[in-house]
Amino acid sequence: MGASQKFALVASVLLLLSGVLLASEAEKSKDSESCNAESKEGCGCQQSRDKDSKKKDAEEPKADDTKPKVFYYKPVKGDTPYKRTNQMVRIPGGTFTMGTDEPIFAADGEGPGRQTKVDPFYLDKYEVSNAEFELFVNQTGFKTEAESFGNSFVMENYLSEEVKKEITQMVAAAPWWLPVDGADWKHPEGKGTSLKGRMDHPVIHTSWNDAVAYCKWVGKRLPTEAEFEFACRGGRENRLFPWGNNLNPKGQHWMNIWQGKFPEENTAEDGYDYTAPVTAFPEQNKYGLKNIIGNVWEWTQDWWTTEHTKDFKDNPKGPLSGTDKVKKGGSYQCTMQYCYRYRCAARSQNTPDSSAANLGLRCAATKLPSYLKKPAKDEL
Ligand SMILES: [Ca+2]
Ligand SMILES: [Ca+2]
């Protein structure tokens, strides 16, 4: 581990500790929280990012991000043996209440509720799968940041004894969350692991910079936080989940989260103790979105801030600068007791070069990419 990574680990510990303190506050009032323990803010190499002008460009998406400058993928029969999951749905736009006046975690900036206008746009129906990301990597040779750094974060429960033996560092405030050498999108649990049987699962260990590069390549862009939340709410005002306030309507599971006592026991009553296929579970609201909450966290364009006013916002794009990017939707590691962030108003953050086993993406677009205008024959 290099000096910069050691520094990053120390920074992670400090930030994670602050997250746990916040969590203990929240615990007193309602549900406890350690989703901050899922974050690893500060992890990664700031220095290398600054040196890389290409990545620097990617940090500030421009208005013309919908026009791919480098590659423009047109599906060709035989390109991939896997079913495509790159379809988009149209989100009609409108004015909605973003955030909430009844925050579960006020320190996250979940409130106040503010009237927010969002123009119509398109959003991926599914999280980006390993199969879709593989097309990108195969055709561009793209190297993710986790691959460049040589490690990424994975929860202890998913690691082999062999891999665990090699790990000498640990985040004191979140000992279940380990930096694993060789963990990247293709080797989700480190050396010796593969994507076998998981090509339709969401790609993980992708940083914000990786996500921007991927979305640009497919002629799309990341959604703004406002767009994500508008889509998540599906036209319903002030509800917890995309479908309403009931966790399991009709007695069924609508998302991939954690059941049981975190982190000791995952009973996987929803059918999955780790990531689920991006096509799993019912459509979560009338826009036809799958796993917009649950499964993996998803990056948005916006820089992170917790300072919001009640003023009307017209297509907000977040602060002009910052250190962390907003992620939304919660993950398979969230429970009511230990990360109640699988709610549309909930939010969290990581530095743009962070990656982890519970963090992925889906893309948005202002204009539907032309290759999607005619549904492919093999469309789901
Ligand atoms: Ca689950
Ligand atoms: Ca998700």
Automatic annotation (TrEMBL):
The keyword Phosphoprotein does not apply. Pfam families: FGE-sulfatase (PF03781). This is Sulfatase-modifying factor enzyme-like domain-containing protein. Belongs to the sulfatase-modifying factor family. Residues 1-23 form the signal peptide. Residues 27-41, 48-64 have a biased composition (Basic and acidic residues). PANTHER family: FORMYLGLYCINE-GENERATING ENZYME, SULFATASE MODIFYING FACTOR 1, 2. It comes from the Eukaryota. Residues 27-64 are annotated as: Disordered. GO terms for cellular component: endoplasmic reticulum. GO terms for molecular function: formylglycine-generating oxidase activity. Keywords: Signal.
